[in-house]
Amino acid sequence: MSLSLQYLIREPKTIKDKNPLLILLHGYGSNEEDLFSFASELPEDCYVVSARAPHDMMYDSYAWYAINFTADATKFSDIPQAIESRELIANFIDELTSKYPIDQDKTVLIGFSQGAILSYAVALSYPKKVNKIVALSGYFNPEIVVDTFLDNPDIQNVKVFASHGSVDQVIPVEWARISSAKIKDFGIDIVYKEYPVGHGVAPQNFFDFKKWIETYL
Description:
Layout: E1 7-10, E2 19-25, H1 32-36, E3 47-51, E4 55-58, E5 61-63, E6 67-69, E7 75-77, H2 79-99, E8 102-112, H3 114-125, E9 132-136, E10 159-165, H4 173-185, E11 189-195, H5 203-214
Parallel strand pairs: 2-3, 2-8, 8-9, 9-10, 10-11
Antiparallel strand pairs: 1-3, 4-5, 6-7
Helix pairs in contact: 2-3
């Protein structure tokens, strides 16, 4: 069975009737091998799937959506492409749960940068499909969430672990702080942490989000 996204998979040490699923979503210009380096350290009773973004940037680099620059060097995101990727990821989750014995109540999205932005979008658009996310070095972009998401009572079941480097030179830490406050305003349970690093994942950050995940598995 061919799935809509290419991916790497680490199967659980013991396959049960249903196992938790952790989906890794890499950042802009990276690939599925990047976050898959976490796989061996993640809980061994989970399926760990690292997906490749659909837009080929050449040289083994991929993006979930284009980031363009105007003449005055202002950066902006290709919103239609981002929405397409949101739908691709949502469909990919369905495909995985059809192919493998997965516990749909224990599906976690772990996204870095652009992957974190998409993780917010998928969970808030489809909270019955996935209601736990780890958003690393990203932010909440309301433009890529379904318009009616606040009307969906299921968003109250969403739980978020968000983290950011306090000296991030790619996505300003202020964006993550604003996002955290907005998510809290929606009535969503969010843990937000900062680490003294740039655009990356500190060892303590990995330990903290792993511990957070384990409380829900």
